[in-house]
Amino acid sequence: MQPAIVGWAHTPFGKHDAETVESLVVRVTNEALDHAGIGPEDVDEVFLGHFNAGFSPQDFTASLVFQASDAFRFKPATRVENACATGSAAVHQALKTIEAKRARVVLVVGVEQMTRTPPAEIGKNLLRASYLAEDGDTPAGFAGVFGKIAASYFQRHGDQSDALALIAAKNHRNGVQNPYAQMRKDLGFEFCRAESDKNPFVAGPLKRTDCSLVSDGAAALVIADGETAESMRRAVAFRATAHAQDFLPMSKRDILKFEGCAEAWKRALAAGGIALDDLSFVETHDCFTIAELIEYEAMGLTPEGQGARAVKEGWTEKDGRLPVNPSGGLKAKGHPIGATGVSMHALSAMQLCGEAEGIQVPDAKLAGIFNMGGAAVANYVSILERVR
């Protein structure tokens, strides 16, 4: 059996003034171990996903996990960073360690605290996930980068404002029933479509409802090798994974194709011996609605330039052909950067174990996860299935 998720924890995402990076890490560490039915002495190695880039004054954070228990002392612990895909990068490092037989049980924690940072600094910090030599002076920061992508997509494939509003409305509707989501409000298509004082344009054709939320939060996973997982309460196995890293400068690639995303999906589906239509649902990286639109095309759901069809024809609805972001995605759930990829895996494991409550996709068997760092630079795909 492949390595498997055997326990998890997840804080609500949002504004947590009473918490710190340390307290969030300690909270999910203890809850994930309890959920797996193990103690810290059973963990062989720790990976912490924490982007930071100025959000937290504490910038050496791997050992914060040890604040949960003295029993962690002297275990290997490493902080992992790969922009907005930091969480999945930590997950994939854990898998490599297990596959190399250097560990049987690995704890993965993802965390970020963003809301204490002044708004001007937030944009500056996020822009560090781009190629500063080309994009460092982009108005509106990282949103401006995706605003340029959206404007270029509109120029090549026509105005997609309706499709973007449908994606935003879908994800907010899904997020209503997610107890971990930062924004649990059904905004509706009309609100998302229209410019207003509450929904102004932010960058290019992107309005506020096209942008993911600034968030605090943490999530954790306990991942075990196949033999160990067989004796655990539950086991959600990694049927396949793929990581495709692309060039950092957008000038070196056709940014409207998300080629790294397409390559990661291609590799993962081939390794898993499945087709996209075999998946029960997908959690994909909707940092901006234009990203989700292009990801439909990159994953193979629609041909290039026809991503709007998937949302306009209801394919990506919770009861559609391939539900996308039943959790509400980053759009409604929130996007505490280092925690996002870990959250995607935790929520997908909940789905496959039938423990997702209001966001449950009926009879979910196979989950697809796509987590992206930068503008389609770091591309991670995981395919999960319940085996116990």
Structural class: alpha/beta
How confident overall, as mean pLDDT?
Answer: 98
Widest sheet: strand ordering: 3-2-4-7-1-8-11-10-9
For the secondary structure, the number of strands is 11
Shape: globular
Question: How many strands, which pairing sense, and closed or not: the largest β-sheet?
Answer: 9 strands, mixed
CATH architecture title of the domain at 4-117 and 214-229: 3-Layer(aba) Sandwich
The first-level CATH class of the domain at 4-117 and 214-229 is given as Alpha Beta
What's the name of the CATH homologous superfamily of the domain at 4-117 and 214-229? Thiolase/Chalcone synthase
CATH topology type of the domain at 4-117 and 214-229: Peroxisomal Thiolase, Chain A, domain 1
Considering DSSP H and I runs of 4 or more, what fraction of the residues is helical?
25-40%
Beta-strand level of the residues, as a percent range? 15-25%
Query: What letter string, H or E per element, gives the SSE order?
Result: EHEEHEHHHHHEEEHEHEHHHHEE
Radius of gyration equals 19 Å
InterPro entries: Thiolase (IPR002155), Thiolase-like (IPR016039), Thiolase_C_2 (IPR055140), Thiolase_N (IPR020616)
GO molecular function, one term: acetyl-CoA C-acyltransferase activity
Keywords: Transferase
Domain Thiolase C-terminal: 251-386
